[in-house]
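Worked example 3 (structure in, sequence out).
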C-alpha cells in the first residue's frame, strides 16, 4: 500500500467513526473497522460487533444481524434522559409553567421532524453512492455531500464544541456531587464536617479522566452505562419521594406561569434543546437496523417517552422547590446517607462514561492534527511525518502514541478550564444547548434538506424548512448571547458553609 493510499484510508476511517451523541452513554463506540489506529496498541481493541455489545456505528452489521426496534428505541431514549434532565426544573423556573411545558413538546416534535429530514437526505445521497460506502455514511459525510467542505466542518466543529462542552458539564456535575457527598457524609454522625474544596476534588478526578481517555478500547467502560442508567432513574425517584412528604413551595409562593423576562426564555431554551440533540445518532443507527423502514416509528416513540419522562420531572421539581429551585436539582435536597450515596454513584457513572463522550471530540481534533501534519509534510517536502504515522517500527509507534496522548490531555484540560470558568452545571448545559446542539438539531438538517432536495420538495415544505432554519439561527444567536453573558456574570458556587447548612437541614413536613 502506498503512503498516499494509506493516508486516505486513515482519514476515511476517522470520518466513518464520527457522529456519536454526547449523552449516548449506553452505546459503546465501534472501532472494528480501524486498520490504521491512531494509538499504538489500538489494534488489540479490534473486536466483532457481538463482542462490543450494542454499538451505534457498526458498518459491518448486515441486515440479518442488525439491531431491532426496541434496542434502537432504548438507545435514543437513554441519550435524551441523562444528566441534563436534572437542570430542567431550573429551566421551568426561568420561563414559567405554560411556556416550559408547551415549549418542550414543541421542541420534541420539531426535533423528530428534523431527524426525518436527515433520513430523507440520507436516502437521496445513498442512491449515488457505491454499495460498500452506504453503510459508512454519517452526519459529517452528509454535510460534505450537501455543502462540501463547509458542511463537513460545520458538523465537525459543532460536534467538537458540543462534546467538549458536555465533558465540562460532566466535570462540574462530578465535582459538585462529590463535594456535597463527602462533606455531608463526614459530618453525618458527630457534625464534625470535613469540607473538600472544588480544587481538591478536581485534583483527584482530572488525572483519572485523562488516563481513561488513553484507553485503546472503551468496550468495558461502556457497559457501566447500564448501571449508570439505573442510578439516573434512582436519582429521579429520590426527588419524587422527597416531594411526597414535603411542601410544594411553588404552590405556597405562587406558581410562575409565564417568564418574567425574555432572558428567562433563552435560558430555558438552552437546557431544553440540550435534550434533543440526538441527530448525530440517527443515520448510524438507521443503517444497522434490521428493518430501517421502521425508524420513523422508533423516533416518534422515543420522543413521546423522552418528553413523557422529562416534562413531569421538570414540573415536579419546580413545583417542589419554587423560586429556590437550583440549577442542579439535587442541590435542593438535604443531606442524608442514601442521597449522598446516590451522588457518589452518579459521579462514578459519569467518570466511567466521560471517555466515551470525549471520543468524538478527540476524533475531530485528531483528524485536524493529522491533516495539519500532512500539510506541513507536503510543504517541507518531507516523508518523515508520513512515515511516523504509518510505519510499524516500535520507536515511531511510541512517538505517535505520545503525540496523541498529549493531544487528548490538552482537550481534557480545555474541558476542565471551561468547567472552572463556568462552575454551574445548568449554565454549561444551557450554553452547549443553545450553541452547538441547536446547530446540529435545528439549523443544519433543514439547511441540508433545502440544498439537496430543493427541486423535489413542495413549495409549502420549502417555506416550512426555511422557517425552521430562521428559527434555529435566531434562537441560537439570542440564547447563546444570553447564556454566555449569564455564564460570565454568574456568582461563585456554594461554599463550604452553605453546603454544611444544607447537609444539616431537617425534614419539614407539610401541615395538613
Amino acid at each position: 500500500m502506498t503512503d498516499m493510499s494509506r493516508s486516505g484510508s486513515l482519514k476515511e476511517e476517522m470520518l466513518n467513526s464520527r457522529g456519536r451523541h454526547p449523552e449516548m452513554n449506553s452505546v459503546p463506540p465501534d472501532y472494528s473497522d480501524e486498520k490504521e489506529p491512531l494509538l499504538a496498541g489500538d489494534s488489540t481493541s479490534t473486536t466483532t460487533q457481538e463482542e462490543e455489545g450494542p454499538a451505534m456505528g457498526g458498518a459491518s452489521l448486515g441486515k440479518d444481524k442488525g439491531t431491532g426496534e426496541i434496542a434502537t428505541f432504548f438507545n435514543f431514549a437513554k441519550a435524551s434522559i441523562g444528566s441534563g434532565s436534572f437542570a430542567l426544573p431550573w429551566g421551568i423556573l426561568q420561563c414559567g409553567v405554560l411556556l416550559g411545558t408547551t415549549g418542550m413538546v414543541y421542541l420534541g416534535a420539531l426535533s423528530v421532524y428534523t431527524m426525518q429530514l436527515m433520513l430523507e437526505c440520507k436516502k437521496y445521497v445513498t442512491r449515488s453512492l457505491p454499495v460498500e460506502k452506504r453503510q459508512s455514511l454519517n452526519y459529517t459525510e452528509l454535510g460534505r455531500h450537501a455543502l462540501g467542505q463547509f458542511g463537513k466542518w460545520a458538523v465537525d466543529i459543532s460536534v467538537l464544541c458540543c462534546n467538549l462542552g458536555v465533558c465540562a458539564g460532566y466535570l462540574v456535575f462530578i465535582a459538585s456531587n462529590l463535594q456535597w457527598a463527602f462533606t455531608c457524609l463526614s459530618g453525618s454522625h458527630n457534625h464534625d464536617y470535613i469540607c473538600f474544596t472544588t480544587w481538591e476534588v478536581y485534583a483527584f478526578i482530572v488525572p483519572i479522566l485523562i488516563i481513561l481517555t488513553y484507553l485503546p478500547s472503551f468496550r468495558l467502560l461502556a457497559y457501566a452505562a447500564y448501571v449508570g442508567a439505573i442510578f439516573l432513574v434512582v436519582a429521579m425517584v429520590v426527588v419524587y419521594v422527597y416531594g411526597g412528604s414535603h411542601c410544594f413551595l411553588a404552590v405556597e409562593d405562587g406558581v410562575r406561569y409565564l417568564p418574567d423576562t425574555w432572558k428567562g426564555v433563552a435560558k430555558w431554551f438552552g437546557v431544553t434543546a440540550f435534550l434533543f440533540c440526538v441527530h448525530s445518532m440517527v443515520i448510524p443507527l438507521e443503517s444497522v437496523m434490521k428493518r430501517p423502514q421502521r425508524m420513523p416509528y422508533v423516533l416518534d416513540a422515543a420522543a413521546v417517552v423522552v418528553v413523557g419522562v422529562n416534562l413531569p420531572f421538570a414540573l415536579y421539581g419546580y413545583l417542589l422547590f419554587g423560586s429556590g429551585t437550583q440549577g442542579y436539582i439535587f442541590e435542593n435536597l438535604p443531606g442524608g446517607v442514601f442521597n449522598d450515596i446516590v451522588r457518589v454513584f452518579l459521579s462514578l457513572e459519569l467518570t466511567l462514561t466521560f471517555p466515551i463522550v470525549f471520543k468524538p471530540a478527540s476524533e475531530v481534533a485528531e483528524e485536524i492534527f493529522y491533516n495539519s501534519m500532512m500539510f506541513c509534510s507536503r510543504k517541507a517536502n518531507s516523508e518523515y511525518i508520513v512515515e511516523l504515522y504509518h510505519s510499524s517500527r516500535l520507536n515511531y509507534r511510541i512517538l505517535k502514541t505520545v503525540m496523541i496522548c498529549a493531544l487528548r490531555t490538552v482537550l481534557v484540560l480545555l474541558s476542565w478550564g471551561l468547567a472552572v470558568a463556568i462552575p454551574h452545571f445548568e449554565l454549561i448545559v444551557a450554553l452547549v444547548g443553545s450553541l452547538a446542539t441547536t446547530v446540529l438539531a435545528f439549523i443544519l438538517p433543514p439547511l441540508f434538506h433545502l440544498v439537496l432536495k430543493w427541486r423535489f420538495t413542495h413549495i409549502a415544505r420549502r417555506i416550512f424548512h426555511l422557517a425552521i432554519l430562521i428559527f434555529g439561527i435566531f434562537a441560537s444567536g439570542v440564547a447563546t448571547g444570553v447564556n454566555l453573558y449569564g455564564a460570565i456574570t454568574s456568582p461563585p458556587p456554594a461554599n463550604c458553609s452553605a453546603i454544611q447548612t444544607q447537609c444539616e437541614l431537617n425534614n419539614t413536613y407539610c401541615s395538613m
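Notes: Residues 115 and 279 are 6 Å apart (CA to CA). The two ends are 80 Å apart (CA to CA).
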